[in-house]
């Protein structure tokens, strides 16, 4: 087809379907079967087809709509990010539409197709755990639709990103445990295919190295999704070790809280026998006894920063905007679960 624009008629000819069927499939019409719609979409992606009406709307018409893609909406971190996005967007006259990828790469790709058809003016996304390629976002650059990534962001891909320093935050958490007198510190790690959890593991290791403490592989327990259940299983594995760790840094609060409950059922005192630090400052961290020391990851502020950057790019269409990475500062919130000594500074 050379360099000419691919049309509905081209797709129809390629697939031996009518142009009207192609049009309905592209727009997600309920009369078209899933199999046909996927077949049409695959051929459209292969040939680089973009519907004229959609491209025209992106160029000429303001929809005042922003799409948000999160891995799971029931995770408190993402709920706070969404709240931050929505508050800022509403103040600027934008509405938001929220989708869940459920940590599925295929579902994430399908959502980007839906958002293309819905003519959103910008997208904010936290990548799924499975996402390792980013071709499905390149079409938005061609349409002039800005995309902002937060928390789990792409590597080796030019994009606007809102992040925290996970390495530094994990170092801070582990160092706090060391300052409390812990010398045998375990770590419940997140999925190591995801860079933020790799960074948290490295921050933990660096703190141990700085204070000349051994890195014991038996004390590093990797999880798939950092669920409450996985945290409990990791805690049970620690109880089965010949020597119990005296400190524990967890990559989120869910695993930290479940670990505390397992220890308490086994009559292990927290923090006297094992001091515990979590990550994210979920509301439940202030409910559990003892209250959980944790990292405040500024989720609400992350959402506001993402919305601010996105809307600035939407509104500033006539000037070139360089890709930005905004790194938000975190805080260690010291509570009873780690306080083995008095008057230790809140680092």
String of helices and strands: HHHHEHEHEHEEHEHEHEHEEHEE
Strand content: 5-15%
Per CATH, the superfamily of the domain at 166-297 and 331-338 is Response regulator
Would you tell me which CATH topology of the domain at 166-297 and 331-338 applies? Answer: Rossmann fold
Percent range of helical residues: 40-55%
Would you tell me the structural class of the helices and strands? alpha/beta
Distance between the termini: 62 Å
Can you name the CATH architecture of the domain at 166-297 and 331-338? 3-Layer(aba) Sandwich
Q: For the residues shown, what is the average pLDDT?
A: 89
Radius of gyration: 24 Å
Task: Give the oligomeric state of the chains in this entry, treating copies of one chain as homo and distinct chains as hetero.
Answer: single chain
Number of strands: 12
Low-confidence stretches: 53-60, 343-347
Strand order of the largest sheet: 2-1-3-4-5-11
Largest sheet: 6 strands, parallel
Q: Which geometry do the CA atoms define?
A: elongated
Count the helices. How many? 12
CATH top-level class of the domain at 166-297 and 331-338: Alpha Beta
Describe the structure in brief.
The protein has 347 residues and is α/β, with parallel strands linked by helices.
Describe the structure.
- This protein has helices at residues 8-15, 19-27, 34-47, 52-60, 76-91, 105-118, 135-142, 166-179, 195-210, 228-239, 253-265, 299-315; strands at residues 65-70, 95-100, 122-125, 147-150, 160-164, 185-189, 220-222, 247-250, 275-277, 294-296, 325-328, 331-333.
- It is an alpha/beta fold.
- The protein has a domain at 166-297 and 331-338: 3-Layer(aba) Sandwich (Rossmann fold).
- It has a 6-stranded parallel sheet, with helices on both faces. Strands 7-6-8-9 form a 4-stranded parallel sheet, sandwiched between helices.
- The radius of gyration is 24 Å and the shape is elongated.
- Pfam families: LacI (PF00356), Peripla_BP_3 (PF13377).
- Keywords: DNA-binding, Transcription, Transcription regulation.
